């Protein structure tokens, strides 16, 4: 019996460097990474794993935008600015913990 041939097509996409704000917090025993610049998040059991998963998520996010041909449309709708051929994420002005009074039932 012969094995079927498997062909792997490797598409090498040009790489760009982006800098985005990332918040990592812990919910019970799970670490959550989130960026408002792309409105995406992921989670994992360890800090190292959530950072790894987040990097993968950002890569997949941009691969999908490229595949669908919607990079300009999506990034502009999220407040990104294009200068020449590179993109700049919205600038985070403040990151703080605020207190608010909200209605509560007794």
Structure overview:
This protein has helices spanning 47-68, 71-77, and strands at 23-27, 30-35, 40-44, 81-83, 86-88. The chain is α+β, with helices and mostly antiparallel strands and 106 residues long. It has a domain at 23-79. The strands form two sheets. Strands 1-2-3 form a three-stranded antiparallel beta sheet, with helices on one face. A hairpin with a 2-residue loop joins strand 4 (81-83) and strand 5 (86-88). The model has no long low-confidence stretch (mean pLDDT 87).
Walk me through the topology.
Blueprint: E1 23-27, E2 30-35, E3 40-44, H1 47-68, H2 71-77, E4 81-83, E5 86-88
Antiparallel strand pairs: 1-2, 2-3, 4-5
Which band does the percent of strand residues land in? Answer: 15-25%
How many helical stretches?
2
Across the major sheet, the strand order is: 1-2-3
- Characterize the main sheet: 3 strands, antiparallel
């Amino acid at each position: 019996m012969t094995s079927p041939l498997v062909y792997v097509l490797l598409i090498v996409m040009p790489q760009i460097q982006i800098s985005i704000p990332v918040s990592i917090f812990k919910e019970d025993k799970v670490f959550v990474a989130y960026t408002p610049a792309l409105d995406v998040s992921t989670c994992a059991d360890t800090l190292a794993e959530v950072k790894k998963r987040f990097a993968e998520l950002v890569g997949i996010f941009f691969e999908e935008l490229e595949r669908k041909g919607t990079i300009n449309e999506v990034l502009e709708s999220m407040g990104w600015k294009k200068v020449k051929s590179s993109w700049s994420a919205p600038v985070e002005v403040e990151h703080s913990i605020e207190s608010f009074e909200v209605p509560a039932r007794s």
